[in-house]
Every structure is written in C-alpha cells, then in structure tokens.
Amino acid sequence: MPDYTKYSLEELHDAYSVVDKEKYPQNYQSIINEISLREKECESLYLSAVTALEQDGDQVKARQLFQKVVNKFPRTENAKNAKKFLKGDLKNLNTDTELGEYINSMKLEFSGSTREYFRIWIVNLCLSLLTLGIYSAWAKVRKKRYIYSHLTLDETPFQYLGLPIPILRGRIIAAIVFLIYFSSDNLFPAALPYVFAAGLLVAPWVFVQSVAFNARYTAFRNMTFRFNASHLDAFKVLSAWGIIPAIIIGTIFAWWGSYWIAALVYIPASFLFPGWLKEIKKLIVTKTSFGGISGEFKATGGDFFGIYLVVGLTVFFIGLCVAFSVFVVTKITSLENVKNMAYVITAISYMGYLLAYAYIQANITNTVWNKINIGPVSFHCTLKTTELAKIYITNVLGIICTAGILIPWAVIRTLKYRIDNTQIQCNGELNAFLAQESKGVHATGSEITEFFDMDLSI
Amino acid sequence: MQGCLFDGKSPEAHKATLVIMGEKTILRGQEAERVYKRETLQVSPRTGNADRFIYFSDGIQFQCKDQEILDHLPQEFFSEGIVAWLENHVSVSIASILAVFCFLLIGYFYGIPALAERVAVKIPLETERTLGDHIHQWLDDNKILTTSEISSELQETIREEFSRTHKNLQLYPYMQLHFRKSELLGPNAIALPGGHIVITDQLIELAQSNNEIVAILAHEAGHVENRHSMRNILQSSIVTLAVASITADVSSMGMTMTGLPVLFLQSNYSREFEEAADDFAIHLLSQNNIPSTFLADILERIDAKYGEGRGNDFAFLSTHPITADRIDKMRRN
Q1: Quick one: average pLDDT of B139-161?
Q2: CA A166 to chain centre
Q3: Which pairing describes strands B196-200 and B176-181: parallel, antiparallel, or unpaired?
Q4: Which chain B residues contact residue A408 at CB under 8 A?
Q5: Could you give the CA distance from residue B168 to residue A65 in angstroms, rounded to a whole number?
Q6: Nearest to residue A169, comparing CAs of A220, A209, A198?
Q7: What is the pLDDT of residues A119-154, one digit of tens each?
Q8: At what angle do helices B323-332 and B293-306 cross, to 10 degrees?
Q9: Among A233, A266, B86, B323, which is 20 to 30 Å from A434 by CA?
Q10: pTM of the entire structure?
C-alpha cells in the first residue's frame, strides 16, 4: 500500500478520485483518513494565523503563517483567503498598526529632471571632447551616478559604485579591439573571417564580464548584485551549442552555394531566433543574485516567439503591399515617379522600424519582467506600444531638429515612462536577502559592449 | 540629521540619527549607538538634489537628505566637487553648448579630413591592393562587369593616351586600366582601392573624342593619386564612431539614431572628394593642353541621356555634387 503520508493534498484528492473502493478498501480508507488529517491541519494553521493577526496584532507572524497555508495547502478555500491577505487586501487589518514596513508594494520612483541631467550631460560632453575622449570614463560615472541616485526603491536610492580608472582601461582596450576589426575589415579582408572567429570565442567572455561588472557595481542599501555565470555557460547559450558560429562562418565563407540552400539554413534559424533571445535573458536573470538569492525566470520561448511572429508577419505583409504598389505605379506611370516614391518608401520604412521596435520593446519587457522574481520580490510591467512609439518618434524628431541638444531630454523621458510603468512587490521579508562575499570584476567587458552598442540588459 | 542606516548584511532600513560634534560623530540607531572619528567619514558626491550617503569605516552606510553640512565632511571623490560646481552654473552649460558645437564643426570640416589625409599618406597603396583585387574579382564573378567588346586597337590607343598624360603622377605605377562591359553601371568609370580604374564600354561609345575619355580617366586618377578611398574609409569610420559615442545614451532606440546622421555626414564627405577629383582633372588636362570643356561635354551627354534631371532635390544625400554645378565649373576654367 502506498505511503499516503508522503502525498501532497492535491495528490491525495487525485488518488481519491481514481481509487477502486471495492477492490482496495484499505487504500480507500487510508486516503480518506489522510485527507481529513490534512484538512484539520490546514484549518488549525489558518486559525492560528488569524489569531496572530486579530488578537495579537503580530503582523509578521500572521504573514508567515498565511504563507505556510498557501504553500502547504494550495487551492483550498483557506489558501485563497490567505492569498488575499498577502496581496494586500487590507480589510482585516487594524488601521493604527504601522503599515509602513509591511506593505507589499515597494514604490519605484525616478526623480531625475531634464534640467539637471542636461547640465551634467553637456558639461561632461564638453570635457570629454576637449580631452579627446579620456575624460569620458569620468563622464560615464557621473551620468550613471545621477541616474542611479535618482532612482529610488522604497525611498532609498540605488548606488553606482563603478570607478573611472577601470572604465578608462576598459575603453582603451576596446579601442584597440576596434582598430583590429577596422584594419581587417578595410585593409585585409582575407583576415576578416579569422577576426570574426576570434570574436566568437571572445564574445562569451565579454558578455560575462559586462553583465558581471554592471551587477557588481550596482548596489542597493549597502548590498551589491552579483552575476555568477561561468564563461562556459555563456558560451553554450550565446553560440547556441555551436549553431550560431556555424551560420556566421558559413555566411562569410559562402558555404551555401545557391540561394536555396542558404534559405534552407536561414529560415529555420530565424524561427529559432526568439528562443535564442529567451535563453540569453534567462541566463542573465537566473545567474544574477542579490543577497544570496538568484533570480527566477518563467518566460517561455513561446512568449518570445509570439511577439516576434506578430512583428515578422506585419513586416512581411507591409513589404508585400509596398512591392505591389511599386509594381502598379511603374505600370501606370513612368519610372520617374518610382524614384520619388523611393524617398517616401524610405520614410515609411523608418517609421515602421520605430513602431516595430516599440512593439517588441514594450511586449518583451512586460512579458519578461512579469515572469521574473527574485526571492520574495516580483515585478509588474505595463508598457504600452502606442505610448512607447509616440515617445520614440518624438525623441527622434526632437533630436534631429535640435542637432542633438535634446538627447538628455529623450533619455530622461524614456526612463521616466519605463519606471512609471514598473511596479515592484515583496511577498515576504526583506531580510531573506543576506550579504555574500564578493570579488572585483574587470571593466573591459562592459566597455567593449558599449563600444559596439550591444544591449545586453533585460 | 535624520536618516536611515543600512548595515550591509540585509536590505532592511533602520531609522537613525547622526549627530556631529566637532571631531566626533555619533550614529544613533534604534538599538545601538556608535561613535566615529570625523575624519574617517566619507560622503558620496552631490548629484542634483538626490539623497546622499555617508560611509563609515566599519561598512555601515547612512542615507540622508542632501544638506549644506555634508560638504564640510570628508568627500569620497575630490574631483567631483569641481565638476559638480561646473554643472551647477547655467553659464557653464551655455558655454559648453557653444564649445561642443564649435569643436564638432571644426572637427568635421577640418580636423577629421586633415587627420585622414595625413594618416592615408602613411599607409602605402600596396595595403589597399588586396582589397581592390578582392572587389574587382567580386564584380567580375558576379557578372556586374563582363568582358569588354571594345576593339583591342581602341583599347591600345586609349592606354597610350592615358600613359602619355598621366605618366608623371606619383602613383602612376600602381594605376591599372580595365575595360569592361556593364549593364548595371551604364556609361561610367570607377576607381577601386589599390589603383584599379575601370571604364565601361557604354562610356567609350558615348564619347565623341579620345580627349573626353582621357578627361574622365583623369577624374578617376585623381581619386587614386589623392588616396580618396582610404581617406574616405578613415573619415567615415571616425564620424560613425563619434556619432555613436555621443548618442550612446539613447542607444535604447537601436540604430535609428545613428543611421541617418551618419549617412548625411558621409555623403557630404563623398561630395567633397568628387569635387576634389574634378579639380584634379581640370588641372591635369590643362597641363596637357586639353581644355576642360571636354570633361564638361561628356558629363553633359551622360546626364542628358541617363540622368534623371532631378535638379536640386535631395542633393544633401547624394554622393556626387549636382551635375550642373560641376559642368559650370569646368566651363569656367
């Protein structure tokens, strides 16, 4: 006879619904006994939680007990009520207790202003140019400090701990790398495939260093984040088990022969692309830790694929419309008008790109963050494509019309929108996070990715 | 002053008060009280009006509102004070805007071209050879350039004319003339890196005299002699880099920010090189007693037959100056 004491309440209910009462009367009896035992347990646990809350006024203990009810006896009526309380349904609480430390939502605010940031940006830009770029490391620290110190969570600002000298060293090395790439691209094209191959090997290292540097030098309440992935992990994910390098090298050396074979390779590859992106983000989240607790990532490849599919289909459809209209215009009028249409088409493509980018950004960000949690902390993101697209378009117009002066304005307003639409919740105690040992991380990685504009953040 | 202290072991906030009494500072938390020497404190730099942190020697941090007195305590970074002072004065910002614009304009119109010119001279033409051969091979392989149908006598004549007029150029030994037929390029001549000069059959057929062909070749030779392809690569790369680093903050919008401005800036450089090549051609022709009107004539004919008569539309994105302007310049000389 199975050991029913080891079954969870759900498993017991399942067993109860399939057991043959006539054939195995002993099992049947055991199951019934075990279920009634559990239900008594659940009831008494719930009762003690309510007592702690209403009679003792001990919020902490009540929360712990309610959480236990939810964990041990999910899907019961008691668990549902317990969840309601934990989510902050405050009907049962006395209003004169100190709610400040126990409220679920932690306010995330960005208090930076364009006026202040503009001054920082322009003065630092001027100094960077005058020093032919050497000061730029100090400029980066200064700008990051401004942004971080005006980003507050539960009234405490984040802290950027990066120092200029490591950043400067990193930038010098990045400049040398760029020089190598440049000379091989323009002077020694035969060497280019080997440069790329070397790049593929080095990329995981750059990736790990970059994310680790940014994590290590971000602090909240005197504790830093950490990124714990090994280079092997990064290599496995980035090169997708060798598929990505194979495709890239194949393209460079033109292995494909004909366009049909190339299509056979590229089309399945593009279907797998969203899944690959998901793996990268998953690597970042699950290996990032704060106070010893690592992130959890529940978004699936399907989530990513769905979003990219929408974009892909829309682009394809619009492309067809454009091709069709060009065809029609060529037939009806002359080639002349097609040349003029070229400018219109370019403008439309540019707008389309911005819209697609806004759509992807909004939806991926929402999906990913809604399914991330780190310990008791969870996130909720409500970005809208339309709003984001409006912001991007006005940013581009503003920057172009003012020859770049409005860049700080664009940065601040985009950031404000994102922060305003992000909420953070904590379903437990903050002291679940405990400080760990840490060691220094080299700055080069993060400088190289900034040089080549690779957005590796979530 | 009032604030919160963080012990660095867990992210919980503990209300605390900091009292400064001469050389001693007392940090009063909810449970305990600690005393620190004033000189061991470190205050984080001012950034706007954000809260600041005081770091203590035992790893504890104290967060409080930004206030005057914090500046009198030992600071974490000395230099930041100067920059912060600069940032706080509007006049500095305005001066910076002007300085940045001047710097960028001077850099673009004078600095970068001058730098590219000097560096290009130091890089021998041989290094471009591989690239040029590579491109030429590619054009041939992909049937953009096919075998010429110009008679070998005419080819010989043109080569002799070219040699006669160009043999005194410093980079003449590297210049290789190639005759090709090309549907895609129409009547055209291009200079590839490393000294290759390709001229199409359609151009030769359109020409009404050998002098016109020599004039076109002189323009292309100008590109080679003055190392335009190398200089263009250098200038474009520096411009791309500069735009990318200045707009790095808005990198969250992808390539949208860098694409258009870079294209615009690069086209301008291309146009400048084309003008320089025209000047070179006019000069070389006059040295050989060939009037530059020949160049004007052939350009006019090409434009009439194959040009689109766009006039002044979108000239700022074009790689060549407006044909009408070029022709005027040649006629004036």
Answers
A1: 90
A2: 26
A3: parallel
A4: 249
A5: 95
A6: A209
A7: 999 999 999 999 988 898 888 888 888 999 899 888
A8: 160
A9: A233
A10: 0.74
Q: What are phi and psi of B19, to 5 degrees?
A: -120, 130
* pLDDT at position B79: 62
Alpha carbon distance B175, B220 (integer Å): 10
CA gap A139, A364 in Å, rounded = 31
**φ, ψ dihedrals at A152, nearest 5°:** -115, 140
Q: Using CA atoms, how far apart are residues A371 and A94, in angstroms rounded to an integer?
A: 32
Can you list the pairs that A434-440 forms with residues at least 24 positions away whose Cβ atoms lie under 8 Å? A434/A291, A434/A292, A434/B9, A434/B10, A435/A223, A435/A291, A435/A292, A435/B8, A435/B9, A435/B10, A436/A226, A436/A289, A436/A291, A436/A292, A438/A216, A438/A224, A438/A226, A440/A216
Q: Answer whether A414 sits within 8 Å of B63, measured CB to CB.
A: no
CB distance from B257 to chain A under 8 Å?
yes
Q: Which pLDDT band holds residue B240 (cuts at 50, 70, 90)?
A: confident
Of B273, B237, B261, nearest to B112 by C-alpha is B237
Which among A357, A379, A37, A165 has a CA at the least distance from the CA of B257?
Answer: A357
Phi, psi of B321 (to 5 degrees): -65, 165
Going by their DSSP bridges, the two strands A156-160 and A218-220 should be labelled as antiparallel
Tell which of B43, B237, B257, B265 to mutate to test the A interface (max A CBs under 10 Å): B257
Two tokens, residue A193: 């495939």
| pLDDT of A317 higher than 50 | yes
Question: How do beta strands B196-200 and B189-191 pair?
Answer: antiparallel
Determine the residue among A222, A225, A289 to mutate to test chain B binding: the one whose Cβ has the most chain B Cβ atoms within 10 Å.
A222
- The amino acid present at A76, given as its one-letter code, is T
Phi/psi at B28 (nearest 5 deg)? -105, 110
* CB-closest option in A118, A138, A433 to B11: A433
Two tokens, residue B171: 């980079």
The amino acid that residue A74 corresponds to is P
Q: Is the ipTM of this complex over 0.90?
A: no
**Token pair of A247 as six digits:** 């495709």
**A187·B53 Cβ contact <8 A:** no
Tell which residue, A279, A276, A315, has the closest CA to residue A297: A279
| Mean predicted confidence (pLDDT) in B110-136 | 88
List, in sequence order, every beta strand (DSSP E) within A348-443: 372-374, 377-381, 422-426
Other CB atoms within a 10 A radius of the CB of residue A436 amount to 14
Nearest-CA neighbor of B292 among B216, B221, B184?
B216
Residues B26-74 pLDDT 10s:
888 777 788 888 888 888 887 777 888 888 888 888 888 888 788 778 8
A284, A285, A159: which is closest to A224 by C-alpha? A159
- CB–CB of B266/B236 below 8 Å? yes
Q: Rounded CA gap, B273 and B222, in Å?
A: 9
